[in-house]
Design a protein that fits this description.
Elements lengths: L47 H8 L2 H22 L16 E2 L39 E2 L6 H9 L3 E5 L6 H13 L4 E5 L7 E5 L2 E5 L4 H11 L10
Parallel strand pairs: 2-4, 3-4
Antiparallel strand pairs: 1-6, 3-5, 5-6
Length: about 230
Amino acid sequence: MLEEQEAPVPRQRPRPTRRQAAPPAAAGGNAPVGSQRVSGSAPKTKPRWRETIDSFGGFLTIGAIVGAIVIVGAIFISSRPESTSRDVSSEALAGTTIPVADEETDRQHVTDPAKMLIRPGEPPTRGPHFAVPQPPGVYNQPVPDGNAVHSLEHGMVWISYNPNIAGKDMVKQLEDLGDQYGIDTIVSPRAENSTAIAAVSWGQVLKLDSFDKGQLENFIKTNRNRSPEPFVR
């Protein structure tokens, strides 16, 4: 009798597992490995003042421009000639002293030239004068006595010449001297002078028949700014 054979037990195959689907990529492409993208954040906008600065090239460019302006301004100021000298000599005043005619009216402002102290043959050195001073410089036309005296009160030196006596060479020498001491002097013709040259400061006069640069320079350097109101130009 045949032995009954046991029926084979069917082998159970393992059930396949489902792979988890990857999350969908964000719009615009996959994010790079190791980085994290933040969704929903808007780009930051610059303040208006910063946009204005950037339109001019940024802080570095503006700083360079400001620095250049400061340097150029400093060079301009340092190279600009002074409007008046500050030199005051301690030497005795040069020239001849003209005495005060009247202390009360010595510095009075007037409009009538007849009230001024004008000695024959020479320019006035002090006394009543016009309210407006004569600016320094070289003039080829006469300047009003009243304006020139006011400039003497401010410490300037007035060198006048008689054009009927002084030749062209002398006039050129006087004008060159006036240019050399341009902030302290007035050079102009004055036909009323009895001598070729008459240099005056406040209360002082030097009369010359010929050009003498040494005497004129000494008169300027010694007498300038020695007046009631020095350093005013």
